[in-house]
Design goal:
- The protein is 24% helix and 21% strand.
- With 310 residues, it is an alpha/beta fold.
- It has 2 domains: 142 residues, Murein tetrapeptidase LD-carboxypeptidase, N-terminal domain (Rossmann fold, 3-Layer(aba) Sandwich), CATH 3.40.50.10740; 142 residues, Glucose Oxidase, domain 1, CATH 3.50.30.60.
- An 8-stranded mixed beta sheet has the order 6-14-13-8-9-10-11-7, with helices on both faces. Strands 2-1-3-4-5-12 form a 6-stranded mixed beta sheet, sandwiched between helices.
- Strand 9, helix 6 and strand 10 form a beta-alpha-beta unit.
- The longest helix has 13 residues.
- The two termini are 21 Å apart.
Length: 310
């Protein structure tokens, strides 16, 4: 296999660029996230622009902010303030050839769009995990916060792989090897028909979201199936899908829908993992690296090689 472009590890006293590629974040939550990152031993530098409606700035401003953060030598990593909506606008006119050295890009939700773009065009490893005002602001190992151990292993451990306890529930037992890809389910679906449509054949697919009714999850998963996207997928990791209750009493849940639609695939599946939108401390999951999914009990994920370089 070709060598995977991996970013340099996050070192003590490194400077982290903070960007808002989608919607503007609450200033108080940003301030709390800054303090948390500083307590972890990092310097922070925020790149800002004037909010426009439900965007953190114009598309041109946000695109330039992303490019500056990923290209400037003083930044060891790039962390987003929050998701929301608007990362897709940045892809119009974003030239992958302008990006030469991989950098840690950490975020979830709407940031899925950027992570897929970088994977499909450059093969970069990125990280699905906490953001400044959506995880770091609540603190380490706290509700609506972030899991410190997985963050550290993903961003700092450059000598070996590691194993994550997925803290979920097995829907279909088994084990499978594949490259981790995916993210927020509706954002993965939104790549279909674009030049950066996510290729998931041979992968361990990560899917999570929030505020989706069970029939809406059914519709997305059926779209994937009918589009042939599940062909040769090796395993699936599903989030908790909070705020996604059945609209009628005793109706099918999102878990029920996933079990019915995905159970036909006869591959290992783990449900209810605290990734992305979750009320539990959020795991950091590297995307673009080889992994092994062990679907039994609460599930385990073996990251088979380091995600960063020395």
């Amino acid at each position: 296999m070709p060598k995977i472009p991996k970013p340099p590890a996050l070192l003590p006293d490194s400077t982290i660029a903070i960007i808002s590629p989608a919607s503007p974040a609450d200033p108080q939550r940003v301030a709390r996230g800054f303090r948390e990152l500083e307590q972890l031993g990092y310097r922070t530098s925020i790149l800002t622009c004037e909010p426009r409606s439900y965007f953190a700035g114009t598309a041109e401003e946000r695109r330039q902010q992303l490019l500056d953060a990923l290209r400037r030598e003083e930044f060891r990593a790039v962390i987003c303030t929050r998701g929301g909506y608007g990362s897709n606008y940045l892809l119009d006119g974003l030239d992958p050839c302008a990006l030469h050295q991989p950098r840690i890009l950490l975020g979830y939700s709407d940031i899925t769009t950027l992570q897929i773009f970088l994977w499909q065009n450059l093969g970069w490893v990125t990280f699905y995990g906490p953001m400044v005002a959506a995880g770091f602001d609540a603190g380490a190992d706290k509700p609506s916060g972030y899991d410190l151990e997985s963050l550290t292993l993903a961003l700092i451990e450059a000598r070996s792989g590691f194993t994550l306890d997925l803290r979920g529930e097995t829907l279909k037992t088994g084990s499978a090897d594949g490259v981790l890809v995916g993210g927020c389910m509706t954002l993965v679906e939104a790549t279909m028909g674009t030049p950066w449509e996510l290729g998931i054949e041979g992968s361990i697919l990560v899917l999570e979201d929030r505020e989706m009714k069970p029939y809406q999850v059914d519709r997305v998963l059926t779209h994937f199936r009918q589009a042939g996207k599940f062909k040769n997928v090796k395993g699936i990791i599903l989030g908790e899908f909070p705020e996604s209750g059945a609209p009628v009493a005793n109706g099918p849940t999102v878990r029920d829908v996933c079990h019915r639609v995905l159970g036909e695939l006869d591959i290992p599946i783990v449900w209810g993992v605290p990734i992305g939108h979750t009320p539990r401390p959020m795991l950091t999951i590297p995307l673009g690296v080889p992994a092994r999914l062990l679907a039994s009990g609460a599930g385990k994920l073996e990251i088979l090689e380091p995600c960063v370089t020395l």
